[in-house]
Amino acid sequence: MRRTFALTYILMVVAQMLLTNYFHFSPLCMATILPMMVLCIPTKVETLWAMVIAFATGLAVDLFVEGALGLNALALVPVAFIRKGLIGMIFGTEPFEHKENISTRKYGFARVSFAIILVTLLFLAIYIVADCAGTRPAWFVGAKLGISLAVSYLMSAVLVNLLSYDDRR
Amino acid sequence: MPKERPLASRIINLAVFILLETASLLMLSHNSTLQRLWIARLSHGFMAKTWGATQSVRNYFGLKSQNDELALENERLRETLRAYELAAKESDPAFMPSVKENGFRYIPATIIKSGTSSQHNYLILDKGSEDGVVANSGIVSSKGVIGIVDAVSKHYSYAISFLNKELNISARIDTSGAVGPLAWDGLRTDEGVLREIPLQFKYNIGDTVYTSGYSAIFPPDIPLGVAGEAKVINGATNEIRVKLFQDHSALKYVTIIENTRIREIEEISKSDNISGEDKE
């Protein structure tokens, strides 16, 4: 059965909603796979549409989870905004020339991991700073950023291949 | 790297990015009080820094005229002081002038951002909590009341301008002693309206209007403007137009007034309320 990107993407959005609603590990830890999902949007999708998809994704998660409306959308749109530049910087021109998706099989686990860490770091930095809204001490923000980055990266690294499969039959 | 995009495409992407981020921030500020305060604090800080930088350049080029104005004001004050000293010496030859503690502390400040175009104008001043400014302090100039400090950051203060329809100043007409709230009329930057003046109080057009001193924010007898035409409201009170001494569209240097006894006044007001409730 051929998996389609859109269906997998929607299922992952639902998974993220469940994860956010039902798995509260600690106030110092939040787990997210949203930045990895936006990173894996096919390279043929223009930045403008990637930002619209990211905004809609963030808003959908915001609507169905506890928390401030707009927080996920605020943090996810910048990931879509820098996505093409970041892919070009880490993977070169090949993904754009061949209109390929990013996959660990083709580009290696290390490079994909590096890209996931960067987008997750960007997302979490914006999310945590906006969520804390200047009410938490710097050590709390730093600790939450570090722990959340580690947890989110591990989850994203496990799930990345579901979205970044090769298009070859 | 991806193929070079045309400039128009980059500009559109940037515009959409800003649009989506603004939409997210608006949603965030409308749905969470904590985030709303944070966003307001950030935007006020940003505006204060931006306007502070441009204003300091403008101030530099306006220094000469400001110096002239200050020199004139100093001379006027010296004249007034001499007149008071003379009058006091005539009545008591042993009189020595002294500075009397009146419960108010004065902090000079510069306006770095002000608005006059909306119905709810505000000011940003270049003095903050590090300079001793606290919220609910009054702001005056040599020509009248300018506003009230609403919030204070480390280096800046955010104030509600007199040109804000929500602000009322307790004011008194010199000759009759009638007291009422003075507010901006919402139309001109040099006119206000003195409301709720009972009909039995007579006054003349041209009488000076002062602060009453009934609020804990402003000391009494700060001249505000002169009384103009009045109209009767609901057959019960007069509403008097006041031509302000201070034109709020041309304003740069102000003085912040802190009532150092405000806590004492609030405490005694609170105990009065409690005893009032007890009586009921």
Which helices and strands appear, and what pairs or packs with what?
The complex is a heterodimer of chains A (169) and B (280).
Chain A: H1 5-22, H2 34-39, H3 47-64, H4 71-91, H5 94-97, H6 104-107, H7 109-132, H8 138-163
Chain B: H1 7-31, H2 33-61, H3 63-91, E1 104-114, E2 120-125, E3 138-141, E4 144-152, E5 157-164, E6 168-173, E7 179-184, E8 191-198, E9 208-211, E10 223-233, E11 237-244, E12 253-259, H4 262-279
Antiparallel strand pairs in B: 1-2, 1-12, 2-5, 3-4, 3-12, 4-5, 6-7, 6-9, 7-8, 8-11, 9-10, 10-11
C-alpha Rg of chain B (nearest Å): 24 Å
Distance between the termini of chain B: 79 Å
Question: Which outline of chain A best applies?
Answer: globular
How many β-strands of chain B, per DSSP? 12
Order of helices and strands of chain B: HHHEEEEEEEEEEEEH
What's the multimeric state? heterodimer
Distance between the termini of chain A: 10 Å
Indicate the mean pLDDT of chain A.
86
The mean pLDDT of chain B is 81
Tally the helices of chain A. 8
Give a quick account of the main beta sheet of chain B: strands, pairing sense, barrel closure: 6 strands, antiparallel, barrel
Secondary-structure class of chain A: mainly alpha
- Give the low-confidence spans of chain B: 275-280
Number of helices of chain B: 4
Question: How large is the radius of gyration of chain A?
Answer: 15 Å
By secondary-structure content and strand pairing, the structural class of chain B works out as alpha+beta
Query: Helical amount among residues of chain A, as a percent range?
Result: over 70%
Principal-axes shape call of chain B = globular
The portion of residues assigned to helices of chain B is 25-40%
